[in-house]
Design brief:
The protein is of the alpha/beta class. The protein has 10 helices and 8 strands. The chain folds into 2 domains: about 5-20 and about 90-215, HAD superfamily/HAD-like (Rossmann fold); about 20-85, DNA polymerase, domain 1. The protein is globular and about 50 Å long.
Length: about 220
């Protein structure tokens, strides 16, 4: 693996970068609100705006009392386990982007989703075998935007810092994490981040993962 061109490493976020999971995520939030009889005063956009953060932070931001947050997380996870594969699809060109990336780079997943749910989804979409490492919520103490998830991915790959390490993600959390970890953050517009916000953290912004991978392959992304 380590003799791929320039030892390039590409780390991918998952939700909004490779997979479309909005229906599953939002649906599970509403399920937990109903099950635990919480009078949610927001709307679907409020939930979508928090995607990328850990579930406990999302619930807190959405108004759930701190002492009840983990009850809601448990309700969410129980429902998500049932519906995640059925209500999740690959984003356009996601499989192609990973296949192309694998021809010149070593690959990893860095997500705030737990590996308990990430691995079955990757296997379902025939993506699992392309990735050498998967870092989820369970593998870190501090999730994105902290640099720890990226740093742990690089440790698991036995990789040293270089100019050929990239993090592709759809929210500011991915890019801030990359910047703080000292790797190149590459943003995509296929998910939940707004272009105006992403521009604050990177100049490398593409419509989707395939465009981003091709830009990396062609050495178009500069520090």
């Amino acid at each position: 693996m380590k003799d791929k061109v320039q030892d390039t490493i590409i780390l991918f976020d998952l939700d909004g970068t490779l997979i479309e999971s909005t229906e599953a995520i939002v649906g599970c939030f509403y399920h937990s609100f109903r099950e635990l009889k919480y009078d949610f005063q927001g709307d679907t956009e409020d939930i979508k705006n928090e995607i990328g953060y850990p579930l406990d932070i999302m619930y807190t931001t959405l108004g759930v009392p701190q002492e009840k947050v983990w009850d809601f997380v448990a309700s969410y996870k129980k429902e998500y386990k049932k519906v995640s594969e059925e209500k999740t699809t690959l984003l356009p060109h996601a499989l192609e982007s990973v296949r192309v990336a694998s021809t010149f780079a070593r690959l990893g997943i860095v997500t705030t989703k737990t590996t308990l749910y990430t691995i079955p989804l990757l296997k379902n979409f025939k993506l699992f075998d392309y990735f050498e490492t998967i870092i989820g919520r369970q593998e870190v103490t501090h999730p994105k935007p902290h640099p720890e998830p990226i740093e742990n991915a690089l440790k698991s790959l036995d990789a040293t810092k270089s100019n050929s390490i990239y993090m592709i993600g759809d929210t500011k959390l991915d890019i801030i994490s990359a910047n703080t970890a000292g790797v190149k953050g590459v943003a995509v517009l296929s998910g939940y981040g707004k272009i105006e916000e992403l521009k604050c953290y990177t100049n490398a912004i593409y419509n989707g993962a395939l465009e981003a991978v091709l830009a990396i392959k062609n050495n178009e992304i500069k520090s």
